[in-house]
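debug: dumping io for the single-chain case to check the tokenizer round-trip. Nothing else runs in this session.
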Amino acid sequence: MSSKLLEGKKGIIFGALDNSSIAWKVAEKANHHGAKFVLTNAPVALRMGEINKLAEETGAEVIPADATNMEELESLFTKSREILGGKLDFVLHSIGMSVNVRKGKHYTELNYDWLEKGWDVSAVSFHKVMQTAWNLDSMSDWGSIVGLTYMAAQRTFPDYNDMADNKAYLESIARSFGYHWGVRNKVRVNTISQSPTQTTAGSGVKGFDGFIKFADKMSPLGNATAEDCADYVITLFSDLTRKVTLQNLYHDGGFSNMGVSDAIMAQFMNNEKE
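debug: decoded output
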């Protein structure tokens, strides 16, 4: 049996921006494990990033596409099948954006036009991606679709703002559309709830460095890195997880099941003594 878990598999990776992004790491790992894929991001993001370096490194083609635009998505999936020579075995949705966060709008004072834009990019785009693949019959049987999320969808992180709502909706879409994919094509749909990770997108959240330090002290295994997350994504793309679907999978060093840790308690006790 080949040690390359994705040998012969084909897919699309959304969201690689620079070498700090999880999608970038997934592309590198997928290439290492024998997959062929297309890289895509919004045209404006491609101008900001370094995706051509990744494409050269992995032998992938880059197709610009706005994941909120159905016509561009249809073109993306059609061209990807032509380039890759058949149906797709995996799709990664690694997209998230909040204009309210970028503009420093407090959650109690949201701009609803900005809210709608962020909701469309961060969550509804996941449905649009899957609906496009569904209508074009683009997925191979037993394929895998993965979206990236964060546990602010379940617990309150005040400065995560409306991104928390976006992630909650993203996870619901994964379950709802995942049912239909499973029945029709045995395609699995899952989300990964990753540790706070120092990416270009994540660093825009107020207090994000504090999130990272706190989570690392709370988690018995420490924070999962972007590279760790990429390894986990590869297992979900592989045939080793054929019966895993409709799940929100925590990849956070154990943070999600913690109440308090000795390291956090020690810090508070020291502060009290001072």
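debug: round-trip ok. Strands lie at 10-14, 36-40, 61-62, 88-93, 139-149, 188-194, 248-251.
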